[in-house]
């Protein structure tokens, strides 16, 4: 399949793209990757390139891959056919990227991420299930945020909007299916939604 460019790079202008919620998501990206203590990281779909620059400040070397040369990635290539040997990078990551591919192609891209990773794959995906956000403050123990799923009788149907081909918990894409399909390629260590941006669900996988 030949992939078409979906958005112009101008979409990544600061006030247009980087909301406070996205900054929170970036914090979790950096937190999860640095916990794995990698020497060499590959990011698929770098967007405005903030993850790479922030990771560099933490001493983490990140290379980027995208098929759009205007984003100036380190490697111009398809995520479904990466030009790397097996186990080239300690950690391979893709944040809010796989949903930009038709579902079967996103699974191919994920299998490629696992192939070129030595140890871990870290991703985030959009989760459309509505939640209520709460937090409890306990003296001496601090503040503890938590999410409560909103009841829903039926999952909403997803319509391609020019960018997202699918989203978690849209009709036909329950979380159970996503986990089952991804764990066919790697071992799931954890998944969670972030309190500041519940639309972003994180997954950390270990290469089998």
**Quaternary assembly:** single chain
The level 1 CATH classification is Alpha Beta
Question: Rough shape?
Answer: globular
- What is the β-strand count? 9
Instruction: Provide a count of the helices.
Output: 5
Relative strand content: 25-35%
* Rounded average pLDDT: 92
Tag the structure with descriptive keywords.
single chain; 208 residues; alpha/beta; Rossmann fold; seven-stranded mixed beta sheet; two-stranded antiparallel ribbon; 5 helices; 9 strands; globular
Structural notes for this entry:
By secondary structure, the protein is of the alpha/beta class. It is 24% helix and 28% strand. The protein has a single domain (9-206), classed as Rossmann fold. The chain has 5 helices and 9 strands; from the N terminus they run ααβαβββαβββαββ. The chain is globular, with a radius of gyration of 17 Å. The two termini are 28 Å apart. 30% of the residues are buried.
Brief overview:
It contains 5 helices and 9 strands. With about 210 residues, the protein is of the alpha/beta class.
Set down the secondary structure blueprint.
Elements: H1 14-17, H2 20-35, E1 41-44, H3 50-57, E2 62-66, E3 75-76, E4 89-95, H4 103-116, E5 117-126, E6 131-138, E7 142-149, H5 175-182, E8 187-193, E9 200-206
Parallel strand pairs: 1-2, 1-4, 2-3, 4-5
Antiparallel strand pairs: 5-9, 6-7, 8-9
Helix pairs in contact: 2-3
């Amino acid at each position: 399949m030949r992939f078409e460019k979906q958005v112009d790079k101008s979409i990544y202008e600061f006030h247009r793209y980087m909301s406070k919620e996205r900054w929170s998501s970036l914090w979790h990206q950096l937190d999860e990757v640095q916990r794995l203590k990698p020497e060499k990281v590959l990011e698929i779909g770098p967007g405005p390139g903030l993850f790479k620059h922030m990771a560099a400040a933490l001493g983490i070397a990140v290379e980027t891959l995208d098929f759009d040369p205007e984003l100036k990635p380190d490697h111009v290539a398809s995520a479904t056919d990466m030009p790397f040997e097996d186990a080239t990078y300690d950690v391979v990551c893709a944040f809010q990227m796989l949903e930009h591919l038709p579902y079967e192609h996103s699974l191919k891209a994920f299998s490629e991420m696992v192939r070129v990773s030595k140890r871990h794959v870290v991703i985030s995906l959009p989760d459309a299930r509505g939640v209520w956000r709460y937090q409890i403050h306990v003296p001496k123990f601090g503040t503890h945020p938590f999410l409560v799923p909103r009841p829903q009788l039926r999952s909403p149907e997803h319509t391609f909007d020019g960018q997202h081909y699918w989203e978690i918990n849209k009709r036909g894409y329950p979380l159970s299916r996503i986990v089952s399909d991804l764990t066919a390629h790697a071992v799931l260590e954890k998944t969670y939604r972030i309190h500041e941006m519940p639309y972003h669900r994180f997954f950390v996988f270990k290469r089998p």
